[in-house]
Amino acid sequence: MRVNSPAYWLSLSVTVMAGVCACNSQPSDFRERAEAHGLLDDPAIFRVRVGDTQLEIPKKYIHANGVSTWGTKPIVRGQADEVWLGALLPDFLSSEDQKAKLSTESVVERQVTIRLYRVDAESNAAELSEKHFRATSWRKISALADIGLKEYDRSSNSWGSLSYVPIDSEYRTLDGRELIFSCLRYDVTKNAALQCKTHYKLAPTTGLDYRFDWGQLKKWKDIDQGVRRLLNTFRESAS
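Below the sequence we write its predicted structure tokens.
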């Protein structure tokens, strides 16, 4: 086929378009993506596998646009690379269950945002976080006996500039690592932060992280145990 012939350019155009279609294999519309994941199959429950964890999640816990398959690979119904959830302290009910009696400000203060995501069996974000934590030069380390945490302060405005670990070294993550809360400081002149987060593995190929308002830090153990119980409920429902 001659390079300057109409047939050549038609063939090239079809090839390029085929490549574009192959790359953009996910629906662009939010509702279509939700439907492709199976989020609309049941009015109340979302059945999904994230990594090697199967869950049945009441849909009222799922964040808007909180289910995704990464990149441009095709979506597989009933599977996701990432699912975002939300629950409110102290009882880990959904915001839908409590919105009638709570102000917007109160909802924000009580919100625990949970992310489940697919990971490789060899990778461990908590291990990397722990290595970074240990390698950091801290300006000040204080024992906060009243809340059972050690506070690590490196005097900057960033995630992790205030970090906390349990004084009780026996309290560990689900995968046996040290529990580290990394907090986002907003004003280095104040011993305060906006949010705190931690992450560890829920299962060999399922990562978990969650974040909450810094003002709730004194309830860190209740929050961690509440996240574990909530996710265990979703796992048991799927078994």
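The first strand starts at residue 45 and ends at 50.
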